[in-house]
Amino acid sequence: MSLHDQLIDRNNWDGHINAAGLDIIKSFEGWRSSVYHCGARWTIGWGSTYDLNGDRVTPDHADIDKAEGDTLLRREVRHVEETINRVVKAPLNENQFSSLVSFVYNVGSGNFYRSSCRQKLSRLDYEGAADELPKWRRSAGRVLAGLVRRRAAERTLFLLDV
Predict the structure, then answer these.
(1) Phi first, then psi: what are they for 159, rounded to 5°?
(2) Is 154 an active-site residue?
(3) Separation between Cα atoms, residue 111 and residue 107, nearest integer Å
(4) Catalytic: which of 29, 76, 81, 94?
(5) 110 CB-contact burial (10 Å; exposed 0-12 / middle 13-18 / buried 19+)
(6) pLDDT in tens, the chain (162 residues)
(7) Which phi and psi angles does 34 have, rounded to 5°?
(8) Could you count the other beta carbons within 10 Å of the beta carbon of residue 127?
(9) Which ranges in 66-107 belong to alpha helices (H)?
């Protein structure tokens, strides 16, 4: 049994994002039934970048309803969870994992893979990893107040004991 599986068993946690992590995603992404540009790419729903067919969202994408948006969110969250499980070898508790899901949902798996946050986790430097999160506060070269608040929420959740 892997360390990750042992931690899940010990905490009676199902290994998926918790409500607090999902709340961070939803509150900072916000809901939009129509396509919008978030500063980095075209998105829809709760910040989804891919549609129900698995194609990238484009400016001419049709509006969606909340049920479709929730489906897109669940699918993208599952993809992020799989990424974290694949690239993070350090044991994570429920709040650390959920915080990282929100973070990676926002910055992308490639950026996370190359990040100092992941590298510090590999060295079991949890506090150092948490301190990396607030550094990801820019979009298109500008510091955004919303990203500052989101990273603070993710860092708080990451450091919160279960």
Answers:
(1) -90, -5
(2) no
(3) 6
(4) 29
(5) exposed
(6) 454 554 444 458 999 999 999 999 999 999 999 999 987 789 999 999 999 999 999 999 999 999 999 999 999 999 999 999 999 999 999 999 999 999 999 999 999 999 999 999 999 999 999 999 999 999 888 999 999 999 999 999 999 985
(7) -105, 155
(8) 9
(9) 66-87, 94-107
Token pair 């694949």 is at which residue?
86
Residues in the chain: 162
Q: Contact at 8 Å (CB) between 100 and 22?
A: no
CA dist 159 and 78 (Å) reads 22
The reply to whether 81 belongs to the active site is no
Whole-number Cα distances in Å, 141 to 89, 136, 138, 152, 154: 31, 11, 6, 19, 21
Indicate the pTM of the whole model: 0.90
